Amino acid sequence: MEHITPGQAGAALEAVEDARARVADEVGLPRGYWWAMAAGWLALGAIGDLAPPWLVMAATLVFGVAHATLASRLLAGRRRTQRLQVSAVVAGRRTAVIVVGILVGLVAITIGAGLALYADGAHHPGLWAGVLGAAVIGFGGPEILRVLLRGRART
Amino acid sequence: MTAPGFDELIHPSTRLRLMATLAAADWAEFSYLKDRLELSDSALSKQLAALEEAGYIDTERRLDGSRHRLRARITATGRDAFDGHVAALEAIVAAGREPHSTRSSS
């Protein structure tokens, strides 16, 4: 141990921190989750616009139950890839909170877009608002989560 | 707080990064470790074998379709050794700073 200088020890600690940070970068949700959410968003938008009220209620219920089932396994953010499972200590509890926040925000955006399209006299405003929400979550979901996770990590 | 304990087996750079990666994960697959540490199959196998022989990690072969996948995870013994080693490194760094802090405080 005597032959290790403080500089070498410091470099070793940096290597440890770098390895931990690389594992922390793996926190997130599988790509399939975001595509499934986009498909659900699109389906709900279409059903909300075109189907009878009982089907809208049933579809919303199915969507909620399906998401809750998925969420219980995935929202901790420890299983983004099949090659590694991030430890609970490293993943923390922030991922689930951030994902739920993203979804709540997107619901508000979808409703707002639907109302704006309706006011503008568009045909099938629910469907188009659903397309918008699906595009945001399908293409941008992983990136939005990554940015918010990094933002939270810095604070 | 973990008692410092410098560990010669863990200290070499590759093993230290390997242990740090496994300490931050529940498990990691061979392919992930190989990519992250930029090692050849044989070099990584050798490092894993050395750590497994010391009881610091466990490896498990899993059948995925027609392919075998190897998963590695840190053991309780390995975590204690790793935490002790990190504490020892921190103690060395702190000892290196001590003369300066003593001078500045006097």
Automatic annotation (TrEMBL), chain A:
| This protein's UniProt keywords | Membrane, Transmembrane, Transmembrane helix
> What is the name of the protein in this document?
Transmembrane protein
Query: Per the UniProt record, which residue ranges are transmembrane?
Result: 54-75, 96-119, 125-149
User: To which species is this protein native?
Assistant: Actinomycetospora endophytica
UniProtKB/TrEMBL annotation, chain B:
Any Pfam family the entry gives: HTH_34
Residues of the Winged helix DNA-binding domain: 15-93
- Sorted alphabetically, which Gene3D superfamilies does this protein's record hold? Winged helix-like DNA-binding domain superfamily/Winged helix DNA-binding domain
| UniProt xrefs under InterPro entries | WH-like_DNA-bd_sf, WH_DNA-bd_dom, WH_DNA-bd_sf
Q: What is this protein called?
A: Transcriptional regulator
